[in-house]
Amino acid sequence: MTVGAACLLVSGCGAGGDEASGKAAAPAPSLLPQKLTPPEGKVPEYPEAPDGLAFTEIVAHELERRTLSLANATGKSSGACPDEVSSKAGTQVTCTVSFKGVDVEWNVTIGDKGWSDNVVEYQAVPQTGLLTREGVARIISGNNHEIDYALCNKHPRNGGRTSR
Question: Which residues lie closer than 8 Å to 157 by C-beta, 6 or more apart?
């Protein structure tokens, strides 16, 4: 629920009235009701990485999956990591994943080998969030099925970056 609340806060959504004074406040010109159609079904699972990929490509593929999770939306993402990504502990790089024209940069730190030589731990932290109209609609419709309109700033159709 914390993630949902943060997304709504970042998106500029709010109620149209002023409860403190008991008067209905007129919405600001940039805050117009927008129809948010609840998306059909859940976001499909991102496919597993194909066999035979290089370590760099495996990390990029996982970050593509995580970017779609940030967006909470359907679509295709494409990612790339620098060639310097290796499975050596302590390696730090920035990988970039694009989703509908918006780039999300991920700070990646490679950790130790896992329980087998084929498993490498790593930490990936996005430098920004990703806000989409579909993602906001999923959050709102998931929390309250009776909302037809939301009083929000204009949501980008394809996605937009949010500062962290």
Answer: 132, 133
Backbone angles phi, psi at 131, to 5 degrees: -115, 125
CA atoms within 13 A on the CB side of 27: 15
Q: 3-state SS of 114-142?
A: CCCCCCEEEEEEECEEEECHHHHHHHHHH
* Alpha-carbon span 98 to 91, nearest angstrom: 23
Q: 48: closest CA among 36, 61, 37, 60? A: 61
**Residues 100/126, Cβ–Cβ less than 8 Å:** no
The radius of gyration of the chain from alpha carbons, rounded to an integer in Å, stands at: 19
Instruction: Return per-residue pLDDT of the chain as tens, 164 residues.
Output: 333 333 333 444 444 444 454 556 555 555 566 666 777 777 778 888 888 888 889 999 999 999 999 998 888 999 999 987 777 888 899 999 999 999 999 999 988 876 666 678 889 999 998 888 888 888 877 766 666 666 665 555 555 555 44
For residues 32 and 19, give the distance between their C-alpha atoms in angstroms, rounded to a whole number: 19
> pTM of this prediction?
0.68
Q: Which two tokens stand for residue 163?
A: 């500062």
Question: Whose CA is closest to 154, among 3, 5, 33, 26?
Answer: 33
